[in-house]
Amino acid sequence: MSGIDARVLTISPDRPFRASITTFGALAWSGFRRYSTYRQATIAGSFTNIVFGFLRCYVLLAVAAGAVGNRPGGYDATQLVTYVWVGQGLLAVVGMWGWTDLADRIRTGDIASDLLRPVPPLVSYLAADLGRALHAVLTRFIGPLLAGVVFFELYRPHRPQTVPLFAISALLAVIGSFGCRYLVNATAYWLHDARGVQMLWTLGSGVLAGLSFPLRLLPEWAVATLWVATPLPGLLQTPLDVLVERDEPVTQVGLVALQAVWAVVLLRLAHVVQRRAERKLVVQGG
């Protein structure tokens, strides 16, 4: 094909670093554009998060009013309010639920064509999910945060490192959430239909990630076990505790470092599961 550059940029150890970054960025941009087309869903989702934000906020304020010293779990009223409203916005950014693309393509057999593409499914889906998260930051995150600012007094961080540390923690939460969701979807390689596993994930992740209530309300041994033995507190609890400065600076950094460890472990585990599935893949129906 004279005069036509038919080369395809791929993410591979054999490709230049710049080419791999360009490809990853293009995939992330495609994820951003995909979710930017769902304008009505974005508005409806943000409205729903605001409604549930009021419900959760008043419940936790009632808990604080009845607690000894008005500090349940070590949070004062402004910290609890900030925890709720930032959490409602961060929920859409982390995106713990609703993603079934991989499981659906495994069930229909379309995953076979994905395996022929130059970019591995794990990498392409991760890039697209980061694009989705960026779109959520610019849309879904803002609405609940503004509602909290207008109707309540939010906590203002006093340490200069808190906001950048929160940003890093939120990014790690997105990656950790993606790793969990990928593993949940990947069960379809063996089950062919992952809806049961996805339902269990939906029911358990919100509670154990700190969405339903701050995990610090639980006994200390339960909190420590969840934080060390599972990646779930790192999806919401850690970034929110960092923002409201629930812990000392050293502890904050340690929690974010634990997030980073879990993010690496989850991505590595997802890679191993994907490679194992490719060796034993049986496309349903053919």
Automatic annotation (TrEMBL):
The keyword Transmembrane applies. The chain crosses the membrane at residues 43-68, 80-99, 133-155, 162-184, 196-214, 252-270. The keyword Cell inner membrane does not apply. Keywords: Membrane, Transmembrane, Transmembrane helix. InterPro entries: ABC-2_transporter-like (IPR010390). It holds the Pfam family ABC2_membrane_6. PANTHER family: INTEGRAL MEMBRANE PROTEIN, SLR1174 PROTEIN-RELATED. This is ABC transporter permease. It comes from Paractinoplanes ferrugineus.
